[in-house]
């Protein structure tokens, strides 16, 4: 990465939000969501804004990297079953993968493309100047925690990463958005992590880390953050210990720590980390993340601080301290 990540998820595209985003210190915007039903690209949020008033082009003109996110918290990993030869296989099925890849490439280049609403209604659209990359936001892996099942989906995702890196245009960003319990390996004493001793995403990185631009690691909506000490412990494991066990192709620079931008119930059910908590926890570490990310942007959210400035202050403080 040529700069530190100051990213934010975008789940609506009113003009007021786009105006403020263009003037903000965020350098990366991830628009939600694209999912796949029967191999067809289905969209909601700003991705369903088929008269977007140039919001994508305006972000481009403000020098923002713009990605689109595939999946989301409500999407089961089984929705990508069509990409593999069988329910028992980890091998990519070209008959399913080819149209999936074609849809992604069309969206990346801005269209034109016919996409579908969540109700199944088709409509043609275009996305202006297009996107710099994709974010694979696959959650709901509880039934695949640990052992053989963890290895199974880790291999599937690794094979998908390697195929996409091979087939997408040179320079395309490819990120993932793992929840913390499905990333870390072993019982680190940070709550839910102990339920998943074979971190699925860690194994994915061992197999395909060179294909992944960075990870947007969600540290909210977890029970791991009952205290400031728990936040510090988890970030210490994530940035200090995890890369050493996740393979030579992985480093803390591939981690964008992703926080909820407002306390429950606005943007999360639990695990809200305040700017002060985040700053204190990171300042205690001798390593810096590749960046910071927030869920999700709203210019009308009066409870949220100016997270773009918070991110800049925290990352600048890490640089000033002489830490990597």
Automatic annotation (TrEMBL):
Superkingdom field: Bacteria
Species name: Chromobacterium indicum
PROSITE patterns named among the record's database cross-references: GH18_2
UniProt-recorded name of the protein: GH18 domain-containing protein
Ranges of residues in domain GH18: 1-310
């Amino acid at each position: 990465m040529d700069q530190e990540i100051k990213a934010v998820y975008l789940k609506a595209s009113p003009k007021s939000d786009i105006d403020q985003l263009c003037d903000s210190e965020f350098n990366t915007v991830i628009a939600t969501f694209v999912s796949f039903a029967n191999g067809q690209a289905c969209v909601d949020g700003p991705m369903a804004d088929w008269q977007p008033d140039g919001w994508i082009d305006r972000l481009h003109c403000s020098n923002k990297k713009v990605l689109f996110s595939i999946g989301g918290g409500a999407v089961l990993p089984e929705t990508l079953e069509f990409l593999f030869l069988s329910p028992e296989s980890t091998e990519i099925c070209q008959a399913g993968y080819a149209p999936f890849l074609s849809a992604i490439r069309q969206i990346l280049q801005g269209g034109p493309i016919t996409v579908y609403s969540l109700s199944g209604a088709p409509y043609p659209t275009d996305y202006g100047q297009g996107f710099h990359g994709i974010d694979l936001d696959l959650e709901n892996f509880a039934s695949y925690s640990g052992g053989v099942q963890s290895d199974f989906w880790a291999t599937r995702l690794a094979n998908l990463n390697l195929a996409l890196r091979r087939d997408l245009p040179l320079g395309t960003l490819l990120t993932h958005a793992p929840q913390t319990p499905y990333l870390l390996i072993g019982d680190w004493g940070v709550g839910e992590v102990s339920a998943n001793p074979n971190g699925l995403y860690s194994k994915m990185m061992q197999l395909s880390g060179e294909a992944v631009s960075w990870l947007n690691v969600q540290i909210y909506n977890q029970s791991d953050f009952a205290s400031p000490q728990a936040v510090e412990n988890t970030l210490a494991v994530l940035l200090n210990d995890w890369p050493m066990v996740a393979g030579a192709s992985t480093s803390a620079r591939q981690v964008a720590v992703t926080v909820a931008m407002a306390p429950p119930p606005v943007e999360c059910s639990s695990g809200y980390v305040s700017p002060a908590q985040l700053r204190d926890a990171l300042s205690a570490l001798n390593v810096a993340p590749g960046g910071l990310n927030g869920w999700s942007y709203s210019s009308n959210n009066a409870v949220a601080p100016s997270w773009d400035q918070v991110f800049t202050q925290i990352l600048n403080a890490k640089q000033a301290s002489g830490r990597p």
